[in-house]
Amino acid sequence: MSPFAKLVILILLAEFSQYADAYMRGAPPEACTDMEPQHGPAPQTSPAPYTITPQQNAIEQGGTVKVTIQGKSPKGGFMGFLFMAVNPEDSPSKPLGRFINSPYPARSVDCLPGEQNALTHRDAKSKNNLELTWQAPPDYQGEIEFRCTFLRDFSTFWLRVPASTLVRVGNPVVARAAETSSGVSLVPMVTVFDYFVWRIWFWTSEAQSQP
What's the predicted TM-score (pTM) here? Predict the structure, then answer.
């Protein structure tokens, strides 16, 4: 083998090693904008064999929600992922909130100007089920959509897979004091009660005043 051919092979191996190392350590911050893995061919167009399931569909501002990402089948694991929460009406989308108490093998990614607002993998081992905790911003009100890019292997991935449902972030719903759980107002009931008390008093007074 000629020295030139050896040099080309070394360069290719070095390039591949860089990609492989990045793949094993998770997505870089550069992937925050489009959630693409920065390597491999085009994303798959078939339905993703993975699901994203929030455990609640409404939380308070600054509240938390647990979200499960998993394969649809016992053998449908994923080796890599990039996960975030966005406003579905924003374009381009920007990750919101932050992730807390992330389990291994997840690690946080700082998508500027935020911190810990995306999650990716720490290794390239197969994963089938992860429960992640997301905390809403204290000043945000509106709907949130969880999205995840799943990598089955180095070159096979599904881009920006949406969650099964949106999550509403807002102020807690406070029941009105004048209403019962059935929606019937208490004010008319009090008014009717007062009316009968008044009528009884009036009849009694009128009877006592007669000779």
Answer: 0.71
